[in-house]
Design brief:
By secondary structure, the protein is mainly beta. It has no helices and 30 strands. It is globular and about 35 Å long.
Protein backbone atom coordinates (compact mmCIF):
# COMPACT_ATOMS: atom_id res chain seq x y z
CA UNK A 1 0.00 0.00 0.00
CA UNK A 2 0.90 3.64 -0.53
CA UNK A 3 0.69 6.61 1.83
CA UNK A 4 -0.06 10.23 0.92
CA UNK A 5 -0.42 13.31 3.07
CA UNK A 6 -3.38 14.46 0.96
CA UNK A 7 -5.29 13.83 -2.27
CA UNK A 8 -5.32 10.13 -3.18
CA UNK A 9 -3.38 7.57 -1.21
CA UNK A 10 -3.56 5.22 -4.19
CA UNK A 11 -4.61 7.31 -7.21
CA UNK A 12 -5.14 11.02 -7.84
CA UNK A 13 -6.64 11.94 -11.22
CA UNK A 14 -7.91 15.09 -12.94
CA UNK A 15 -8.72 13.41 -16.27
CA UNK A 16 -8.51 10.07 -18.00
CA UNK A 17 -9.69 6.52 -17.28
CA UNK A 18 -8.89 4.08 -14.50
CA UNK A 19 -9.99 0.70 -15.88
CA UNK A 20 -9.93 -2.87 -14.50
CA UNK A 21 -7.76 -1.94 -11.52
CA UNK A 22 -7.30 -3.13 -7.94
CA UNK A 23 -6.73 -0.22 -5.53
CA UNK A 24 -6.02 -1.72 -2.12
CA UNK A 25 -4.30 -0.97 1.19
CA UNK A 26 -3.57 2.74 0.64
CA UNK A 27 -3.83 5.65 3.07
CA UNK A 28 -4.32 9.43 3.00
CA UNK A 29 -3.52 11.21 6.24
CA UNK A 30 -4.80 14.78 5.81
CA UNK A 31 -7.59 15.14 3.25
CA UNK A 32 -8.79 13.47 0.08
CA UNK A 33 -9.21 9.71 -0.25
CA UNK A 34 -7.45 6.61 0.93
CA UNK A 35 -7.92 4.91 -2.44
CA UNK A 36 -8.91 7.10 -5.42
CA UNK A 37 -9.47 10.86 -5.64
CA UNK A 38 -11.07 12.21 -8.83
CA UNK A 39 -11.31 15.91 -9.71
CA UNK A 40 -13.25 17.07 -12.78
CA UNK A 41 -15.83 15.76 -15.22
CA UNK A 42 -13.21 14.15 -17.47
CA UNK A 43 -12.49 11.36 -14.95
CA UNK A 44 -13.82 7.81 -15.44
CA UNK A 45 -13.29 4.97 -12.97
CA UNK A 46 -14.63 1.70 -14.35
CA UNK A 47 -14.59 -1.99 -13.39
CA UNK A 48 -12.35 -1.41 -10.39
CA UNK A 49 -12.15 -2.99 -6.94
CA UNK A 50 -11.34 -0.33 -4.34
CA UNK A 51 -10.88 -2.08 -1.02
CA UNK A 52 -9.08 -1.90 2.30
CA UNK A 53 -8.08 1.77 2.07
CA UNK A 54 -8.09 4.37 4.84
CA UNK A 55 -8.43 8.16 4.99
CA UNK A 56 -8.00 10.61 7.85
CA UNK A 57 -9.02 14.26 7.59
CA UNK A 58 -11.92 16.59 6.86
CA UNK A 59 -14.24 15.52 4.04
CA UNK A 60 -12.10 12.50 3.25
CA UNK A 61 -13.53 9.25 1.89
CA UNK A 62 -11.98 5.94 2.83
CA UNK A 63 -12.31 4.38 -0.61
CA UNK A 64 -12.90 7.39 -2.85
CA UNK A 65 -13.39 11.11 -2.90
CA UNK A 66 -15.25 12.09 -6.05
CA UNK A 67 -15.12 15.76 -7.02
CA UNK A 68 -16.50 15.13 -10.50
CA UNK A 69 -16.55 12.40 -13.12
CA UNK A 70 -18.17 8.98 -13.50
CA UNK A 71 -17.77 5.81 -11.45
CA UNK A 72 -19.16 2.70 -13.17
CA UNK A 73 -19.28 -1.01 -12.39
CA UNK A 74 -17.03 -0.70 -9.35
CA UNK A 75 -16.94 -2.48 -6.00
CA UNK A 76 -15.98 -0.19 -3.11
CA UNK A 77 -15.60 -2.28 0.04
CA UNK A 78 -13.97 -2.53 3.45
CA UNK A 79 -12.63 1.02 3.50
CA UNK A 80 -12.47 3.40 6.48
CA UNK A 81 -12.86 7.19 6.47
CA UNK A 82 -14.34 10.07 8.47
CA UNK A 83 -16.80 11.41 5.85
CA UNK A 84 -17.97 8.42 3.85
CA UNK A 85 -16.33 5.14 4.70
CA UNK A 86 -16.71 4.12 1.07
CA UNK A 87 -17.16 7.39 -0.82
CA UNK A 88 -17.05 11.12 -0.12
CA UNK A 89 -18.93 12.61 -3.08
CA UNK A 90 -18.54 16.39 -3.20
CA UNK A 91 -19.17 17.61 -6.75
CA UNK A 92 -21.33 16.83 -9.78
CA UNK A 93 -20.82 13.20 -10.74
CA UNK A 94 -22.47 9.94 -11.80
CA UNK A 95 -22.40 6.50 -10.20
CA UNK A 96 -23.71 3.53 -12.20
CA UNK A 97 -23.89 -0.16 -11.26
CA UNK A 98 -21.68 0.18 -8.21
CA UNK A 99 -21.59 -1.88 -5.01
CA UNK A 100 -20.60 0.10 -1.93
CA UNK A 101 -20.45 -2.47 0.85
CA UNK A 102 -18.97 -3.13 4.29
CA UNK A 103 -17.31 0.26 4.69
CA UNK A 104 -16.92 2.15 7.97
CA UNK A 105 -17.14 5.86 8.66
CA UNK A 106 -15.94 7.24 11.96
CA UNK A 107 -18.35 10.13 11.36
CA UNK A 108 -21.25 10.36 8.89
CA UNK A 109 -22.07 8.22 5.89
CA UNK A 110 -20.88 4.66 6.39
CA UNK A 111 -21.17 3.93 2.67
CA UNK A 112 -21.51 7.35 1.05
CA UNK A 113 -21.29 10.92 2.26
CA UNK A 114 -22.57 13.22 -0.47
CA UNK A 115 -22.76 16.99 -0.57
CA UNK A 116 -23.44 18.84 -3.81
CA UNK A 117 -25.28 22.00 -2.83
CA UNK A 118 -24.55 23.65 -6.16
CA UNK A 119 -24.22 20.63 -8.45
CA UNK A 120 -26.19 17.73 -9.88
CA UNK A 121 -25.47 14.08 -9.11
CA UNK A 122 -26.95 10.82 -10.34
CA UNK A 123 -26.87 7.36 -8.77
CA UNK A 124 -28.29 4.46 -10.81
CA UNK A 125 -28.48 0.75 -10.03
CA UNK A 126 -26.26 1.02 -6.97
CA UNK A 127 -26.16 -1.20 -3.88
CA UNK A 128 -25.25 0.40 -0.54
CA UNK A 129 -25.15 -2.42 2.01
CA UNK A 130 -23.59 -3.48 5.28
CA UNK A 131 -21.92 -0.15 6.00
CA UNK A 132 -21.42 1.35 9.47
CA UNK A 133 -21.32 5.00 10.57
CA UNK A 134 -20.23 6.38 13.92
CA UNK A 135 -22.80 9.19 13.83
CA UNK A 136 -25.54 8.97 11.20
CA UNK A 137 -26.48 7.40 7.92
CA UNK A 138 -25.37 4.45 5.85
CA UNK A 139 -25.88 6.95 3.05
CA UNK A 140 -25.98 10.65 3.91
CA UNK A 141 -27.02 13.15 1.26
CA UNK A 142 -26.82 16.92 1.66
CA UNK A 143 -27.75 18.71 -1.52
CA UNK A 144 -30.34 19.14 -4.22
CA UNK A 145 -31.29 18.50 -7.85
CA UNK A 146 -29.99 14.94 -7.68
CA UNK A 147 -31.49 11.61 -8.74
CA UNK A 148 -31.33 8.24 -7.00
CA UNK A 149 -32.72 5.57 -9.34
CA UNK A 150 -33.03 1.79 -8.91
CA UNK A 151 -30.80 1.82 -5.84
CA UNK A 152 -30.91 -0.54 -2.86
CA UNK A 153 -29.89 0.59 0.63
CA UNK A 154 -29.92 -2.40 2.98
CA UNK A 155 -28.35 -3.61 6.22
CA UNK A 156 -26.56 -0.40 7.16
CA UNK A 157 -26.02 0.66 10.76
CA UNK A 158 -25.49 4.07 12.36
CA UNK A 159 -26.01 5.68 15.73
CA UNK A 160 -28.97 7.60 14.26
CA UNK A 161 -30.70 7.56 10.87
CA UNK A 162 -29.27 4.19 9.94
CA UNK A 163 -30.26 3.85 6.29
CA UNK A 164 -30.58 6.95 4.14
CA UNK A 165 -30.41 10.48 5.54
CA UNK A 166 -31.38 13.42 3.32
CA UNK A 167 -30.47 16.76 4.87
CA UNK A 168 -32.27 19.41 2.84
CA UNK A 169 -31.39 23.07 3.30
CA UNK A 170 -34.58 25.09 3.67
CA UNK A 171 -33.37 27.68 1.17
CA UNK A 172 -32.85 25.19 -1.66
CA UNK A 173 -35.53 25.13 -4.34
CA UNK A 174 -35.11 21.60 -5.74
CA UNK A 175 -34.96 18.51 -3.55
CA UNK A 176 -33.33 15.17 -4.42
CA UNK A 177 -35.54 12.67 -6.26
CA UNK A 178 -35.76 8.94 -5.58
CA UNK A 179 -37.11 6.54 -8.22
CA UNK A 180 -37.78 2.84 -7.74
CA UNK A 181 -35.42 2.50 -4.77
CA UNK A 182 -35.48 -0.10 -1.98
CA UNK A 183 -34.48 0.93 1.54
CA UNK A 184 -34.87 -1.72 4.23
CA UNK A 185 -33.39 -3.59 7.21
CA UNK A 186 -31.21 -0.71 8.33
CA UNK A 187 -30.49 0.00 11.99
CA UNK A 188 -30.28 3.17 14.07
CA UNK A 189 -28.51 1.92 17.18
CA UNK A 190 -29.07 5.01 19.34
CA UNK A 191 -31.93 6.80 17.56
CA UNK A 192 -35.68 6.31 17.33
CA UNK A 193 -36.99 3.30 15.40
CA UNK A 194 -38.61 5.53 12.80
CA UNK A 195 -35.20 6.92 11.79
CA UNK A 196 -33.71 3.52 10.93
CA UNK A 197 -34.43 3.48 7.19
CA UNK A 198 -35.10 6.95 5.74
CA UNK A 199 -34.84 10.31 7.46
CA UNK A 200 -35.43 13.74 5.91
CA UNK A 201 -33.87 16.58 7.87
CA UNK A 202 -34.31 20.30 7.18
CA UNK A 203 -31.12 22.21 7.90
Amino acid sequence: GNNAVQYGGGVYMTAGTLLDCLVQGNKSTTRGAGGVYTVGAACLVSNCLISGNQAIGTYSGGGMRVDGGTVANCVISNNVGPFGGGVAQLAASTFVNCRIVRNTSTGAGGGIYGSTVDDYATFRNCLVAGNTAGTYGGWVWMGHESVFENCTVVGNSAATNGGFTVAQEATLLNSPTGKNCIVYYNEATAGPVESADIRFVAT
